[in-house]
Amino acid sequence: ALSFEKNKGVLLALMETLAKSGDQAQAEAELEKYVAEDPTDAGLVWMLARVYNARKEFEKAQAVLIHAIDANPTATQLKWLLADVYRRQDKFDEAETLIAGTVRDNPTPEAYRALAGLYAIAQRADDAEKAFRRGIEAFPSFLPNYTDLADMLSTGNNYARGIDVLESGIKANANDELFYDALGRFYIKHGREKDAVDFMQKTLETH
């Protein structure tokens, strides 16, 4: 995780200013001043790069992120943000290299989700499914990979594969109510309210 302790007061003040005014240009100018003083502070750079990215100032975002990543090679959030900067420019190869690297070097359920999400955006459905399933296999209690995969596999009235994914999550996490809730919500999302009610009633009867 990023450390925001080093310049915590500065960050809180900037966040409050942005929340009140919504003025990204002002936030950018203030952040640039502080990043110029400490360009390796991962927290400050992350916030500035997010503003650059939102304002489509991609070259600026890349420059500050690459410099900060060199100084903070384990700062995964910086790499994910840089990958998003690349993605928004349709530089999918560069984005894939970054995220796949975090999966390799520091595998977390969020890393697998980020990689699968990138593949999904790039319309590489098979690669996305493989990444989701790898994440599920490695971290079977991380619900978002199940729900995201179920949504991706469900198009139109073809949602049987999505149900299969969520049912496998319930099987692997039989004592976690969130997995049952996810399947109930999935039924409702696809207009199957009766199936949702029947499923929840059966769940209540058996648990």
Structure description:
With 207 residues, the protein is mainly alpha-helical. Helices cover 77% and strands 0% of the residues. The chain has helices at residues 8-21, 24-37, 42-54, 58-71, 76-88, 92-105, 109-121, 125-138, 143-153, 160-172, 177-189, 193-206. Helix 6 (92-105) runs antiparallel to helix 7 and helix 7 (109-121) runs antiparallel to helix 8. The longest helix is centred in the N-terminal third of the chain and has 14 residues, at 8-21. The radius of gyration is 20 Å and the shape is elongated. The mean pLDDT is 89.
Low-confidence residue ranges: none
Describe the biggest sheet?
none
User: Helical region count?
Assistant: 12
Number of strands: 0
Q: What order do the SSEs take from the amino end to the carboxyl end, as H and E? A: HHHHHHHHHHHH
Task: State the distance separating the first and last CA atoms.
Answer: 37 Å
What fraction of residues sit in β-strands? under 5%
**How much is the radius of gyration in Å?**
20 Å
Q: Give the % helix.
A: over 70%
Structural class: mainly alpha
Oligomer: single chain
What is the average per-residue confidence, as pLDDT, rounded to a whole number? 89
Write down the overall geometry: elongated
